[in-house]
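Each lists sequence, tokenised fold; shown next:
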Amino acid sequence: MEHLWFAYPLISASVLMIIDLVLWQWLHPRLLRRKLVCRLVLFVLFSMALLDGGLSPLYPVPADWPVARHVLATILTIVWWLFGARTLTVLVVVVMEPRIGGKGHLLQDVMGAIIFLVAAVAAAGYVLDLPVKGLLATSGAVAIILGLAVQSTLGDVFSGIVLNATKPFRVDDWIRVDDIEGKVIEIDWRSTHLLTAEGSMAVIPNAMAAKTRIVNFSRPDHFHSVSLSIELSTRLRPSLVLDSLDKAILGCRELLAQPKASATVVKSGLRSVEYEVTGYVKSRDRRSAVRNQLYDLIHRQLAATETRLDQSRPTTRQSALLNTVGVLRMLSDEDRNQLEQHMRLGAYAAKDVVLAEGVLPDALYIIESGVLSVSIQRLDSWIEIGRMGPGELFGESGFVDGTPALGRFCAYTDCMIYRIDKADLEPWLQDHSELLGALAGLSRFRTKARAAVLETKPVLADPSGFMGWLRKNVTRFQVSRLPGPNDKMS
């Protein structure tokens, strides 16, 4: 090979090695593919330099060479094997990284160690002309002795390889190993590191993790369970309690429709009955918030059911309901008694429209039991923006500023709703300006919530397949055929 820069092939090979080391340290670790390309190019040039110098990695260096040149040639030939092993290791990392993730280094390290071991044995056999069979026999005996000495450690290492290959969990997954629960922070050669809910670090040997039961709370990753148990008195009929629990479940919009949430009786005793509610949410981070919301909804639904059935209480159903409405708690007992006289109870079946969008409310509505869905019309469909339960009111816009309802209020389940007609309530509000101010604040809050929903652009599904391709190309063709400013119209 007559290359000017190969006039001194051994020196050229040494310079290429230095360039490789400098580039590998200089390039950012994130540019792994670029580093691999540079290393491949330098490895090819390094091989060409050795061949041009009369060297072959498959044969020993000629014995008649001068000592200095012989030593340099031997070192460079051994380096060729290690250089090739390192290049192959990087190639394996680039190929495997999309499959095992950027943090799954254990399997990569094991394969890299095997590659370097094979390269070292090959260099010893081909370049140094050592008796490889005797070396392998000696190393085998040493390996047996070391294996017996570090049997436990080797068990952890091979268990770690199995865990990385089968992938029962990955880094950032939330798992439970035996009775230890936490988030996977790292999987190294010997152990798996978990960050527990208390903020402490739990180190579990890989051999233990491979043999015991593993529960992965992050798989599948599109839904996560939320469960809670409630213990109630036996004086409440289970069928009525289950009905209230079902309404509370429907009142929580964050619970997924599939898998469907449910409420069941776990066990019954002489004094109490235990119920369990199970549902699913999209994000694990929302589990605590949804659980708290469910407790609040269950309390309100049960309170409404108990108030409706318990006639022995000195207070009326209307008074018990008014006590749960936030904007009406400021009223005195005398004012509340006057307001009760104008309350009229109405029953609505599921899907009944209580108040239509764009209609001026002629009454103030207060929900006693059930779940109400609030939706607005956008384009040609209805978008649900919220759900309401016992103790919530609507229709306040007709009293505050005389504007129509901003949404459609429809019964999501069977509902019992009180209404107070505008003719009865308007004169009464003139003497209670603080109540009118509270209704105005509620109206402003709902107006902002509706505006926020309207400002959100709808997500249009991108058609795929042949029809999507055809639509895109037809659109591109139509745009390209639009007449320009200089085109003549016929």
Summary: Confidence is low (pLDDT under 50) at residues 1-5, 459-467, 474-490.
